[in-house]
Amino acid sequence: HLATSLPLPSERDHLRPRIDLIAFMIDIKSKYSLKNVEASLAYVDASFFLGKVCFLVTGVGRVNYCSVEMNAIWKLGEVYRSPVLFCELELEGVRVATAQRLLRMLQICAGHVPGVSALSFGSLMRNSADD
Amino acid sequence: PQQTAFLLRKQWTLYSVTPLYRFSGARLRDYGRLLGAFIAAEKQKGLAGGGGVELDIKVAVSSLPDLRGSDQDQAAVLVQLSSRSSASRKNSEEKLLWSGWFCCVSGDDLSERVPEDFTCLPLFLANGADSYTSIVGSWFQKTFDCCFRRLAISPLNLSWMAAMWTGCKVDKTASALELVFSVPSLPQPLDILYAIHPEDAKDLWDTVQKTPGEITQEEVDVFMDCLYSHFHRHFKIRLSATKLVKVSTAIASAHCDGFIKFLQSQYLTGVLMLLTELAISQIQ
Predict the structure, then answer these.
(1) Measured between alpha carbons, how far is A28 from B171 in angstroms, rounded to an integer?
(2) A74 lies within 8 A of chain B by CB
């Protein structure tokens, strides 16, 4: 499901399936996208931040179009204890690889991978990022 | 200030240059001769944008000792190409065809990390025909084993410049703070020019900046956000979703494709320090 901001419209609440993973997309070329994500985060229930949220930063291929400061993004990842992934949507290889990563994360968050919970996976990703 | 007045009010194209190998500030005249010979040879080969009149190109390489941050910086080097119409040797009217200068202002970050034989002049500015820029560039690249790359300025850095330069005191009536935004992904490209009265801009910046002489990313963000929300209130357009491409103040004017215009000699070194920093980060 794709949405431009949160909260999701309440009219369709009863029709919506369970949400297992929220990927917030930040376009490094648009300061507005960062502000939008920051505002939307307020509408997310705290339980999601136990491994069911990630930040996907796009547009990282062109450093000279950068309108968002990297520190602000790292801080976001730290404050919400969620992994930050980078990708360049315009490159097919990277796009496919990122999609595969997200899919894998989704499988874990939905409980389809025995022995690995969203929380344990989340802390695994965080620890390797700190290294 | 007198010496550098000719650098003002011209549009300069920006390049980053990797350290030059075995460059000597004492051999500038020799370099001028060698470069002149190279250009003449290239012209023979038909590569120097020929055209009708046979142009005799004179090369002058000199030093601009005042353009540096500290004594550790290498003094700026100026290269000028002038023409003398060989037909009328008698009146020999020299016309300045092209200028380019290398400089390094507070480039300690780079110069401290570079081996003995290398000279750090990471910023190069050119004004004149591209064909001359590429000939001069290739001579330097061949002779000193360095590499030139166009220096682009990101919207993030442009907003720093907008905030920094707005805070600078100017004597005469300052010109407006002008910001140009380009709106992406539209069938026809749209450019938005946002002009702010210089006193309003300075007042805003003064309320945002906490410590004079120091600027933080947070302060720049607040400054820009105020300008963006003011615009949104009136025009319902979110400038934060567009790309900032040009910043113009009374101090200088900068474009994201790597163009700069210096407007005040008082702040020339300050702007060069910022550009040197950008050039160094592009090299690394």
Answers:
(1) 38
(2) no
Number of domains forming the structure of chain B: 2
Helix (H, G, I), strand (E, B) or coil at B245: strand
Q: How far is A58 from chain B (nearest CA, A)?
A: 14
**Confidence at A16, pLDDT banded by 50, 70, 90:** confident
Residue B53 has pLDDT above 50, yes or no: no
Of B108, B102, B59, nearest to B83 by C-alpha is B59
Among residues B80, B65, B62, the alpha carbon closest in space to that of B10 is found at B80
pTM of the model: 0.85
Q: Residue B97 is part of which domain span?
A: 5-150
Inter-chain touch A65–B241, beta carbons under 8 Å? no
Tokens 């460059």, residue? B23
Name the residue among A30, A64, A71 with its Cβ closest to that of B154: A64
- The number of beta carbons lying within 10 Å of the beta carbon of residue B76 is 23
Mean of pLDDT values over B249-267: 93
**CA-to-CA separations, A130 to A73, A121, B246, in angstroms, rounded:** 15, 14, 37
Question: Which chain A residues contact residue B181 at CB under 8 A?
Answer: none
Q: What number is the ipTM of this complex? A: 0.76
d(CA B223, CA B207): 9
Do B258 and B124 meet the contact criterion of CB atoms below 8 Å apart?
no
Question: CATH assignment of A19-125, given 3.20.20.70, 3.40.30.10, 3.50.50.100, 3.40.50.300?
Answer: 3.40.50.300
Residue B241 to residue A32, Cβ atoms within 8 A = yes
Q: What angle do CA B127, B129, B135 make, to 5 degrees?
A: 100
